[in-house]
Specification:
Blueprint (H helix, E strand, L loop, with lengths): L2 H8 L2 H8 L3 H13 L12 H4 L2 H10 L6 H10 L6 H19 L13 E12 L2 E10 L5 E6 L4 H4 L2 H8 L5 E4 L6 E5 L2 E4 L1 H10 L2 E4 L9 H14 L13 H17 L9 H8 L17 E4 L5 E4 L2 E4 L8 E7 L2 E6 L7 E7 L30 H7 L3 H13 L4 H15 L1 H14 L6 H11 L28
Parallel strand pairs: 1-4, 4-7
Antiparallel strand pairs: 1-2, 2-3, 5-6, 8-11, 9-10, 11-12, 12-13
Helix pairs in contact: 1-2, 2-3, 5-7, 6-7, 14-16, 15-17, 16-17, 17-18
Length: 489
């Protein structure tokens, strides 16, 4: 039993000592200490005579740095002043001084209770390398429902910021305010602590009916929700030694992985709300205003119509786009040494569909992946049956196709009659034997009448002469060749 608990129970020093198993003088000592402390035991403090003489200087350093100074830097200053203590003692003293400074001057936090449909946040994070190029992760987050959207982008330029349209269409509606960092695409300057908005982002906000606000510069705590979204997305999507994720083969694979990540985190129960964000989004969407059917395209560049060859012309230079966009309207803009092409009329919102190096007239930029597989040319054309007789011949196998190609190239006569003869022979002797005979005919260049039957009959009646077997020298009875040493002398 505890000493003080035993004394409070019995009211006697000796009785309490007997219950606690100690001397009654020990009980008297701790009762006196408690009474002197006002009912509680004093907090023991370990004296540090070496550092106590410099306590005022440590307090000054912590206050001047607003609690940011490192213990090793404070130790260097104290050593220059004649301090003889260890660095470990300095670390403890600085930590105690920082603790007292935070109690008096530290930042105080109040829980944020968001209103449904009022706030969203977005931020950027460094994405993985794809095809030797760096990418950017656009991370958006609804404050009330905690619904997250992660979109991969190639850069953070203004037209890529309009990728905000894709996030809003994923939400299904637009909130009242959007909080983000002070990127140049959002704020062009800071005057007296007030952010001067980029006129283009103001136009974007008016188009979607939301007000774009920015956090305090160099203060990530003022947008902690989007910071957490970026941190979680990078930990799961960027290949590292911790998650053992392999490198991405192309940009489409990264997009599919981002979609799978969003589906996973939005379907599971959130730690704060104890509800899946996807379920809460349905309730929050009722408090948000609807989106227009036409996305904002003022920053996408110039409009072009994709012609039937799946190309567009910019500055009299030809650039290819995906063949699925024929007769569609796209937007093209030059960024640095590249031409970026965006398709904005899809239900999913604006999406980058092509990116080319800038070129000059007469030197078109064509990518093979924008087109379906090419048909076989004159030298690679494959036989295709157009009648039952031709189909019956081609079903004999690759040997029949090879025979037909070489016979046609050699100018053989009465090819159709010879094809019918091969089909009839296959019924008598089997498909495999006739196909092999056709391969032999093609290799030997024998396309005359009766050649196929002759080769087939030869293969069936010819006897194979076995090559004489040679006895291995390991089974020889000759002991050695030493007796032949004098031969010929």
């Amino acid at each position: 039993m505890e000493i003080l608990e035993a004394f409070d129970l019995t009211g006697s020093l000796r009785a309490a000592a007997e219950l606690a198993g100690c001397d009654h003088k020990t009980v008297a000592h701790w009762v006196a200490v408690r009474d002197a402390a006002g009912g509680g035991l004093p907090v023991s403090s370990r004296p540090r005579p070496v550092v106590d003489r410099f306590a005022a200087k440590i307090e000054e350093l912590v206050k001047r740095s607003r609690g940011k100074i490192r213990a090793d830097k404070a130790h260097e200053t104290l050593v220059a002043m004649g301090y003889m203590g260890s660095e470990r003692t300095t670390r403890r003293a600085v930590a105690e001084a920082k603790r007292r400074w935070r109690q008096g001057y530290g930042r105080r936090y109040r829980p944020w209770i968001p209103e449904p449909g009022l706030w969203m946040q977005w931020d950027y994070g460094d994405g993985p390398m794809v095809a030797g190029r760096s990418t950017v992760l656009f991370c958006a987050w609804l404050a009330w429902s905690r619904f997250r959207v992660v979109l991969p982008l190639w850069d953070k330029t203004m037209p890529s910021v309009i990728g905000l349209d894709r996030a809003l269409r994923t939400f299904g509606a637009a909130p009242t305010y959007a909080l983000t960092d002070n990127e140049k695409t959002v704020s062009v300057d800071q005057v007296c602590g007030i952010a001067v908005r980029n006129p283009q982002i103001v136009s974007v906000g008016r188009h979607y009916g939301l007000t774009v606000a920015t956090c305090v510069p160099a203060d990530p705590e003022s947008k902690g929700g989007s910071e957490a979204t970026v941190r979680i997305a990078r930990a799961d999507l960027v290949p590292t030694d911790h998650n053992l994720r392999p490198a991405y083969g192309d940009f489409a694979e990264l997009e599919s992985e981002c979609e799978a990540f969003c589906a996973r985190v939005n379907a599971r129960e959130h730690r704060i709300t104890r509800r899946p964000p996807a379920v809460m989004l349905g309730e929050e969407r009722e408090r948000m205003h609807p989106l227009g059917s036409v996305p904002h395209t003022v920053c996408f560049g110039q409009t072009r119509k994709v012609d039937r060859q799946s190309t567009i012309s910019v500055g009299s230079a030809i650039y290819s786009v995906a063949s699925t966009l024929v007769e569609e309207r796209v937007w093209a803009r030059a960024h640095g040494s590249e031409l970026i092409i965006v398709h904005a009329d899809s239900p999913e919102g604006p999406r980058e569909v092509a990116r080319h190096e800038l070129t000059t007239p007469g030197r078109p930029r064509i990518k093979d992946e924008h087109y379906p597989p090419r048909p076989a040319g004159a030298l690679e054309r494959k036989p295709r049956a157009r009648s039952r007789d031709e189909q019956a011949f081609l079903t004999l196998g690759p040997g029949a196709e090879g025979w037909l190609i070489k016979a046609a190239a050699a100018g053989a006569t009465r090819v159709r009659r010879k094809m019918a003869e091969a089909v009839d022979l296959a019924k008598l002797h089997g498909v495999d034997q006739v196909e092999h005979a056709l391969e032999v005919c093609a290799e030997a260049g024998r396309f005359a009448d009766g050649d196929l039957g002759a080769i087939l009959a030869h293969e069936q009646s010819a006897t194979v002469i076995a090559f004489p077997a040679r006895v291995s020298e390991d089974a020889s009875l000759q002991r050695s060749t030493r007796s032949w040493e004098g031969f010929g002398r």
